[in-house]
Write a structure and sequence with these properties.
alpha/beta
């Protein structure tokens, strides 16, 4: 009986002891569960915040990319010059969820923009947290446009724009015109001048003062003649419309309907502001004595077209006795005296006058235009795109669509006779000329290429002829939709 009592007491004590362990164990389990729950909540919250932060970061990057795209749109706009170093000042735009500021710095030695775009978006981790910031840097190389397709067929003509005189254009001596000719006024042929090729377009009258004058031949008519006024041959009465053979005019097509063609015009102010090298785009690399492009242009950050005023009083010698070189990201004007090569690439503007006069045969290289507020004189010199072994300009091997130099002069008198913008004296040019006033080919001078002026004097004993032109320098007067430079796709994304 004693043994049974002991056994019963022992069971009671053991049960009592086990009940005492339940509470601490339960508390421990609850604590572990609480810690696990807190950790889970903390982890979940942390993941949510990280997700929100990542989303904000992606949004900021997208905004930064939008800033780069906006910069590219500015550089690609046809009216803008992508090589203008002041084209991308800091600009800020507001977009959904943030702002972006973009700007660019042009490396003028390589013609490459470094575009920087900085985006800011709201930080989702808390109202006092700093905005999410992404900075994106890209490089944008720019290619200068040196040539474009011809979009004004006037540059395949000799063109005289003057009207109102008895003879708005006079062709004399033994000149034979073998290239298209457009006269907006009245045309007079004198001495033994002839026209052996067409088209010939005369809005006014055609007067041939000598028996030796004529247009085409009975067995070799020109392709087309359009004379808006009367034709008068030698001592005969005028005929309206032109009668053909009786007027010594022989053409496959002969009528009085002059086609409507628009003569080109030079955008002097535009090229004064954008020519490179020029007043606002000085030489980035240079050697020797380079031109003074302007004497009073002012700050390049605020270009002013009213400063196109002929401020450079010293006439610049394009082919002197010493070499020089001026290069920019958009063009070049250089002279190598040893090889006698003048390089003109792009469009160059000098707010003054220029001369070519070294008594020899010079070669030019490139597709280029040279604008002058003043005048141009070419004297005792042959300036050729291609020269033969005898030092003469070689038309047979000249392709003006790959090598063509055009001079555009706005002045009157000074180094040339009053009334002239351009004069050649005992000289030859293989290229193109544009003049506000007259183009004067004196004595035995000749231009192998198109000429457009108020009137054009064709010299003596010359035959005008040049290959067809389809591609021209970007600065050619009257080109529409001029593209100064073209940006490439952005490269080197960093950020």
């Amino acid at each position: 009986m004693f043994t049974a009592a002991v056994t019963h007491l022992s069971r009671r004590l053991r049960l009592h002891s086990e009940r005492g362990l339940v509470l601490p164990l339960a508390l421990g389990v609850a604590t572990v569960l609480a810690i696990a729950g807190t950790s889970a909540i903390s982890y979940s919250t942390s993941n949510a915040r990280a997700s929100y932060r990542s989303s904000a970061d992606q949004k900021a990057y997208a905004l930064a990319e939008a800033g780069v795209n906006n910069a590219m749109a500015v550089l690609s706009l046809p009216d803008n010059n992508a090589l203008d170093p002041y084209l991308l000042p800091p600009r800020t735009m507001t977009a959904e969820g943030g702002t972006v500021t973009y700007s660019g710095v042009l490396d003028q030695s390589t013609g490459t923009w470094r575009v920087t775009s900085t985006a800011l978006t709201r930080n989702p981790t808390g109202p006092s947290a700093s905005p999410v910031r992404r900075v994106l840097n890209v490089d944008v190389p720019v290619d200068a446009s040196f040539s474009q397709p011809l979009n004004n067929m006037a540059w395949n003509y000799i063109w005289a724009k003057a009207t109102g005189s008895t003879c708005d254009m006079t062709i004399g001596q033994s000149v034979d015109v073998a290239t298209p000719l457009f006269v907006e006024g009245n045309l007079c042929l004198q001495n033994s001048a002839t026209i052996s090729n067409g088209p010939l377009m005369v809005k006014g009258s055609l007067t041939m003062t000598q028996k030796a004058n004529g247009v085409g031949l009975p067995g070799k008519p020109v392709n087309e003649v359009h004379v808006g006024g009367a034709c008068q041959y030698w001592n005969k009465a005028p005929n309206y419309p032109c009668k053909g053979g009786p007027d010594n005019v022989y053409a496959k097509i002969l009528d009085s309907s002059v086609p409507v063609l628009t003569p080109p015009s030079a955008d002097w102010s535009n090229w004064y502001l954008n020519a490179s090298p020029g007043p606002y785009y000085p030489c980035y690399e240079h050697s020797g004595t380079v031109p003074v492009f302007d004497a009073d242009q002012g700050s390049p950050t605020s270009p002013d077209a009213s400063k196109r005023n002929g401020s450079v009083l010293t006439i610049f010698n394009l082919t002197p006795g010493a070499s020089y070189s001026c290069k920019t990201a958009g063009g070049e004007l250089s002279w190598d005296v040893a090889s006698k090569v003048l390089t003109v690439k792009g469009t160059v503007y000098i707010d003054g006058s220029a001369v070519v006069s070294n008594g020899g045969t010079d070669i030019y290289d490139g597709q280029g235009s040279l604008y002058l507020t003043g005048t141009l004189l070419i004297k005792n010199t042959k300036l050729c795109a291609v020269a033969d072994a005898d030092g003469n300009c070689d038309t047979t091997h000249w392709d003006p669509n790959s090598r063509l130099l055009v001079f555009a002069a706005d002045g009157n008198g000074g180094q040339v006779p009053v009334g002239d913008s351009i004069q050649l004296v005992s000289a030859t040019l293989q290229g193109a000329l544009y003049a506000t006033n007259a183009i004067d080919n004196d004595t035995t001078s000749a231009v192998i290429g198109p000429m457009i002026g108020s009137t054009v004097s064709l010299g003596q004993s010359v035959t005008t002829s040049f290959p067809a032109i389809n591609i021209v320098p970007t600065g050619m007067p009257s080109l529409q939709n001029t593209i100064y430079a073209q940006p490439r796709a952005p490269t080197g994304y960093i950020g």
